[in-house]
Design goal:
single chain, about 150 residues, mainly beta, five-stranded antiparallel β-sheet, two-stranded antiparallel sheet, about 15% helix, about 40% strand
Length: about 150
Amino acid sequence: MTRPSEVKPREGDLPAALYKDWQVGAEFPELRFTITPDVIDEYMSVVSATPEAYVIDGRRAAPPNVVAVYLMAVMYRKYPPQQGGIMIGNTFTFYHPIWADEDTEVIGTGKLEDKYEKKGRKYICYSVEFARADGQKLTRILHTSAFPE
């Protein structure tokens, strides 16, 4: 079982990546972790999910956004966190369920899609794809944040 806190750097652990450091097109190193039934149950309890709402063909699945708690850990491997970031939005694309009754080895990869300034704020947009170790795509998330620098 891999909890997000085990793979996600904290602010102050490393020197923070500043806006000037972000390079459009830069790829993030892959992050491997395992989502277990315990992680899924814990996530469902935190978000007050109803297990009956996540049944596909009689088989219990995880909420498809369970990987969201690993999103920033993928990006932070290349660009360590800085204080003051504001999450602007996420767009999810779901491909395949994560089954709630088995361990799922997941590989997260991504890249910086864009960076721009608007009305005095600096924005970064990056994407992260999550796939099973066998290559089956699970989820893609496009994320936008604003930073103070």
